[in-house]
Amino acid sequence: MKSFAEIDIENDGNYLKLLSAVSKISGLFSESAVPFINYRVAENIFCRSFNANNLSRSDTAYDADFNSIGIGLKTFISKTNNSTEKVAEFNSLSRDLKNYKGKELALKLGEYRNERISLANRVYKINSSLYHIVARREKELLLFETDYNKINIGNINSVKSNKASLQFEDGYNFYSFNYSKSTLFRKFIIPDNAFRLPIDIIEDPYSLLLDLFSRNQYKSAKDKLVKGVNYVVLPLFSTRNLNNIEVGKSSGLNAWNAKPRPSQERRPYGEMYIPIPREIHNNFPFFFPQKHKSFNLEIPTGEVFSAKVCQQNSKALMTNPNSALEKWLLRDILQLKEGKLATIEKLNTLGFDSVIIIKEDNENFKIDIMKTGSYHNFRV
Asked: Who contacts 213 (Cβ-Cβ below 8 Å, separation ≥6)?
């Protein structure tokens, strides 16, 4: 595959132009000769320029999906030919990780890291992956691509540790793990053939802005996502006791495990629902269609389910057939075998415990996974 810099140049695209433009106004934020680019800005510029699907909201292993290629986007300052950067956080697993040391900890980190990558591959149907790097130096940007390999667990070596961190290699890359932040880092090497984009930072960006906005030829921005209006976040766990979060053993994702109805020997394994807490209906009574009214629910791969709000107090988001939601969430995403209970431990391992529901109109909605803690953050 050609580099993204080459693709942009061949198509007379806007990627390099936008990176250059943002870099030139670095004087708004810093007095340094090194260009300043916020990582979210870099992600948005990439996705806009290459028409890639922005995955940063779901906080999965990848930042973008470019034609079924998972893209990890990194921008950092590097005065030398390498830089060690964050690649994963394991806050929800910090208690478990404290039980391991040395090589056992390195193996566990490799297991968890690889599971997160596999999860993103399943959710977005990713076929291959790579990192796209924007390294920043004085008066220039260096752009290059490098591997996005899983950690080679069978070849973990050179394990070293101190009071603050653990370091190890896997034959491909060097990793370090910060104990206090439960954060995994990887060393990125800048190749000699990286694409160089010269940057001339504007001395007085304020005058440029005053001149630009004096023309009054721009459209006012509007919030793309408005809480309770065009999106809500739903938990995949029970909200009965938020101090001790658990997935109900016979409700929600595990509704199939409830007592069978009089006419049944057992409930079908495909029987499940996503809980809709009462406070969602109380705070946002017009977000979902009326009870039992069907609407379209699009999953991240583009497949569309027929869905509806069901059960007493409209507490359940279900699909018709119910097995469609079960296959996507329990089988494809969580990879649970038939008859295996979904647990909060399983969700924490994969790094998500909620879903976001995006409303396009009263008949069309979208669903995606959200990182651990998202429902709590939505409530406050």
From this structure: none
Q: Which residue has the tokens 């993103």?
A: 120
Contact 71, 132 (CB under 8 A): yes
Q: CA angle, corner 11, sides to 10 and 14, nearest 5?
A: 115
Angle at CA of residue 307, ends 303 and 308, nearest 5° = 165
Helix (H, G, I), strand (E, B) or coil at 133: strand
At 314, give phi and psi (nearest 5°). Answer: 50, 45
Q: Which residues of 203-229 are buried (b: 16+ CB within 10 A; e: fewer)?
A: eeeeeeeeeeeeeeeeeeeeeeeeeee
- Amino acid (one-letter) located at 51: N
Q: What is the largest CA-CA distance in the chain?
A: 78
Residue 377: strand, helix, or coil: helix
pTM above 0.85, yes or no: yes
Name the nearest CA neighbour of 351 among 186, 118, 177: 118
Q: How many residues does the chain have?
A: 380
Q: How far is residue 159's CA from residue 309's CA, in Å, rounded to a whole number?
A: 51
3-state class of 84 per DSSP? strand
AA letter at 59: D
Q: Within 10 A of 341 (CB to CB), how many other CB atoms are there? A: 15
What are 317-359's pLDDT values in tens digits?
999 999 999 999 999 999 999 999 999 999 999 999 999 999 9
DSSP 25-49: TGGGT-SSSS----HHHHHHHHHHH
Alpha-carbon distances, residue 220 vs 100, 213, 217, 231, 344 (angstroms) = 52, 12, 10, 21, 42
Q: Which two tokens stand for residue 273?
A: 């629902």
Q: How far is CA 6 from the centre of its chain?
A: 27
For residue 20 the two structure tokens come to 């250059």
Work out whether strand 316-319 and strand 231-235 pair parallel, antiparallel, or are unpaired.
Answer: unpaired
Q: pLDDT by residue (tens digit) across 244-263?
A: 899 999 999 999 999 988 88
